[in-house]
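Hi there,

I know you've been waiting on this one. I reran it after we fixed the sequence typo, so this is the corrected version. Both the input and the resulting structure follow.
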Amino acid sequence: MVVRPALPADAQELARLGERLWRETYTGLLPAGNLERHLAATFGPSQQEAELSHPECCTLALEEGGVLLGYALLRAGHPQADSTAVGLAGALEIARFYVDPSRHGTGAAQTLMAAVLAHAASTGRDGVWLQVWEQNLRGLRFYQKVGFTDAGAAAFRVGDQIERDRLLVKRL
């Protein structure tokens, strides 16, 4: 497995992977209309292209044999990225962190997270932060295992519904 910066040519594949993983994870847990609105607003190719070209975003792609298995979207300067709220002056937001379930338990997530943390450190960040749904127990366990701590609750909109997330931070 390798981690590399995502390229504009990856937009379509990132859109497909992100939508598929979200759909597999949340179908049946969220009202279908809210799920579809979220997917349309978040994972279209044009959204991926915009994020890939945005100067304050960095997308790292995890692949093996040329097949995209996961990715992380990192954001700086995003309106929601008030790093002072998490107790860090220059934290980088991990806005998305996705690994295909076929690679769970193989070290793929650790490989991607190591690349995320190395990128954050190389850009002078003092930490990273993210939000994870409070009912995503697998995600919460993973983030705790790699050194994130809970900094409180956060809201997350899915369609017209507000879900409760945990705000997690990791100092570098």
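Quick highlight: The radius of gyration is 15 Å.

Best,
R. S.
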